[in-house]
Amino acid sequence: MHESDTVLIDNGRIRVQRGFLDLLRHHGLDNFNAVMLFSHGLLIRAVPGRSTQRIELPVPGAPLLIAYLKRYEPEYLSLQRWLLRLLHCPGYDDEAAREWQMLHALRAHGFNTPTPIAVGQSKGFGIVTRSFVMTADIDGGQAADVFWRTHNRSCRRALIAALASLTRQFHTAGFIHKDYYLPHVFVVERDGNLNPFLIDLQRVMGPAQFRHRWIIKDIGALAFSAERAGISHTDMLRFYQKYSRVSRLKADDKKLIRIIWKRVARIRRHTPRYGESPILSPPSAGGQTS
Hints:
Blueprint: E1 6-9, E2 14-17, H1 21-26, H2 32-37, E3 41-47, E4 50-59, E5 62-72, H3 79-86, H4 95-108, E6 116-124, E7 127-136, E8 142-143, H5 144-150, H6 153-172, E9 185-190, E10 193-198, H7 212-229, H8 233-244, H9 251-269
Antiparallel strand pairs: 1-2, 2-6, 3-4, 4-5, 5-7, 6-7, 8-9, 9-10
């Protein structure tokens, strides 16, 4: 599935993957305002100006499509964010459009992501003020922290190896997640193998070359959420060895590990923006949460 295989509808306000166009039309979701007002679903998460909803889109004679609809409203834009977006400052563009772009970019680089369905934008005062991105559910997917808490030791070892391989490939390909917590990695078991998927890509950067501190931030976030999920320091050391492809730690490795744990300590002291913690999934989590 390529971004080139998309069509524009509703006077260019919505871009949809061609294979989902009839489905959206069937449910009246080929209009931007209709999508933004759609309420027939389960609210997964909501903070001022941003929400994620799990929706079901049945069609007679066809398999049920479960999708996740992430919407952004003007309340999400603080005055500072509004001004920085108006000035086209890097990192302050529309997050729905950025996630759509990264869904396709990562898939082009061989990474598993949710299937992109549609993205939409509405502008006001010279900037995007309302937007959405819709993706398909990851069939059989389970958040990595939930997987850890519900599987045996052998499966947990396999998860550590899969996370290390994914993280190494992700960084080597020139990407930084910026929200690299365990709930943002979903795991699908297929034929005895673990297939990791990356979700919540609205802040992903790349492909590019980044300073090492960005990699430290990603691994620090992963280590913090691993600690919260009950993954031991010993298991995280195994992760580091597989990620770095070292069997014995040298002085530089030990120094880097100390830096990572200092990063973890900083995250522990951080107060969540909306008084909630996004780094642990509920046991029944089955899709995107933020």
